[in-house]
């Protein structure tokens, strides 16, 4: 396994510091194995593009640190949305979405104003595009499987499982990575700060034969990779002996083996078939019944102004709050503001991720919790949680609040097998999501299992897939 941050930019475009400083930080301070630099194309002049490539090729060193040449194609969502472009070697041509902030228009005729134009430019070439959610979210109406082996599901902009689910619902065979989209010159250690970013930046982990450009490239092409929300969670998944990202045939039972090495105790591991959870480990989650976790999550809208503001509090009707602690807050501007024996208040924003508070209570089962935020106001009785978590929809995109007795965790190292004997015909993407008790998450690239009676296994034919 090698760890990297494929996504960020420096002061040459909309970030901070120089591209040279950016890569020195990635290699020497963040201790990454590989990194990319994805400046907005409409800000990259010819001179900046030359400088980006120069610094990438200066710091790149097979066996020590892999730097990939690339940029961000930054088209607006109706014409395709944000896609990172990567080249396998030390050079590549830039095809911009526009020249809107570039004074020199001499090469404007090379612009690709629609994602389909970019697909056409790169047809038959060994180039990689990674759709992602940034200021402009990628429009998955368009997908070229020959160019897009993986997608980004988490960055400092937020956690975007809706994006992952959108791809799976469309039947795309695409793996999962994460990155930071860092603008502060801190790839691999990207804190959200006080701007429009909501969370700590993510990581990509790839299983490669060696630490070289060709090794990392091959691993991404084969989807032997996963993404995390900023924790270096170890994860290895196989289906019938084949690693994550594989495309296999099966005419008998499916055997899925999962190993996790957490950075905190593991809360749960969910196995999905496409968008449906088919198994959760452990089957019975141990809980601390004197502690209650209230966790809120989601985002307002799909587009840029997606932050949901949850500043508010909770009151206990009787009994007392013995202790209150924050759960998964991401920045110094968030967290608990007031804690008494009957009331807790906080500041919080979410952008697909989860925040919350954990209360240690000395209260009878008929005590009431009054949850009060601009997004949702709700009252529940402690006994409502006796049979499991209480989940309340809060609108927006995956916005919800969950009240539950605090999971204890099942240790940092977890290994288990899942057997599925009820395989319907068709092609089924089996994948894993890991959740830690501190809010850490990892998303493993699927294994696509084709069952007799379906299309034969293998990568999709090269060319454009329209999922509309």
Name the descriptors.
468 residues, 35 strands, 5 helices, five-stranded antiparallel beta sheet, 13-stranded mixed beta sheet, mainly beta
Description:
The protein has 468 residues and is mainly beta. The chain contains 5 helices and 35 strands. Strands 1, 2, 3, 4, 5, 11, 12, 15, 17, 18, 32, 33 and 34 form a 13-stranded mixed β-sheet that branches. Strands 22-26-19-30-29 form a 5-stranded antiparallel β-sheet, with no helix packed on it. A hairpin with a 4-residue loop joins strand 27 and strand 28. Helix 1 runs parallel beside helix 2. It starts with a strand and ends with a strand. The C terminus is likely disordered.
Quick structural summary:
With 468 residues, this protein is mainly beta. 11% of the residues lie in helices and 39% in strands. The chain has five helices and 35 strands.
The geometry reads as globular
Number of strands: 35
Binned strand content: 35-45%
Low-confidence stretches: 454-468
Rg, nearest Å: 23 Å
Structural class: mainly beta
Described by strand count, sense and barrel closure, the largest sheet is: 13 strands, mixed
Mean pLDDT equals 94
Helix content: 10-25%
Distance between the termini: 36 Å
Work out the helix count: 5
Give the arrangement of secondary structure elements.
Elements: E1 2-5, H1 19-29, E2 34-36, H2 46-59, E3 66-74, E4 82-87, H3 115-122, E5 128-131, E6 142-143, E7 150-152, E8 154-155, E9 158-159, H4 161-169, E10 175-177, E11 203-206, H5 213-221, E12 225-228, E13 234-239, E14 242-243, E15 247-250, E16 254-261, E17 266-273, E18 276-281, E19 287-299, E20 308-309, E21 312-316, E22 320-327, E23 335-339, E24 343-347, E25 349-350, E26 354-362, E27 368-372, E28 377-381, E29 390-393, E30 397-407, E31 413-420, E32 426-436, E33 441-444, E34 447-451, E35 465-466
Parallel strand pairs: 1-2, 2-3, 7-10, 15-34
Antiparallel strand pairs: 1-11, 3-4, 4-5, 6-35, 8-9, 11-12, 12-33, 13-14, 13-16, 16-31, 17-18, 17-32, 19-26, 19-30, 20-25, 21-24, 21-27, 22-26, 23-24, 27-28, 29-30, 32-33, 32-34
Helix pairs in contact: 1-2
